[in-house]
Amino acid sequence: MALLKFPTKAINTDVVNPFVNSVFDNLFNDSFITDRLVSRIPAVNITELEKSFEVELAAPGLEKSDFKINVDKNIISISVEKTEENVSEGKLYSKKEFSYNSFTRSFTLPETVDYSSIDATYENGILKVMIGKKEDAIIAKRLIEVK
């Protein structure tokens, strides 16, 4: 019995209709479509420290006044309402990717949170929200002696 190796690609379809393949390649590789499919919600890092929680939100290009942080019961919401200013000043763009949309990120806070010690800073495109823990929630570290 003879073994024949078949090519991994089917019959060369580019020869049959090269226009169809180039249209689909251009359609799926077009940055306009892929930009619209990518989520516009900023990435978040949440860290639990000994005495607090730290929420870091990557939001470059914004200002401190753009952020609105609300605490309602056990939910903290971070939102931005930014509209795009359409000032072209005689420029003709071949591609424009600078745009800021509104977003809201909400997180459920644990019972150990001290609601009176929540602070926020915005520096170098990173919004940091520090959420303190209650005194009784902070675990005291100690060395246990083995007897």
Automatic annotation (TrEMBL):
Database matches in SUPFAM superfamilies: HSP20-like chaperones
UniProt xrefs under CDD domains: ACD_sHsps-like (cd06464)
Domain SHSP: 35-147
Record-linked Pfam families: HSP20
InterPro entries to which the protein is assigned, alphabetical: A-crystallin/Hsp20_dom (IPR002068), HSP20-like_chaperone (IPR008978), Small_HSP (IPR031107)
Family: Belongs to the small heat shock protein (HSP20) family.
UniProt-recorded name of the protein: HSP20 family protein
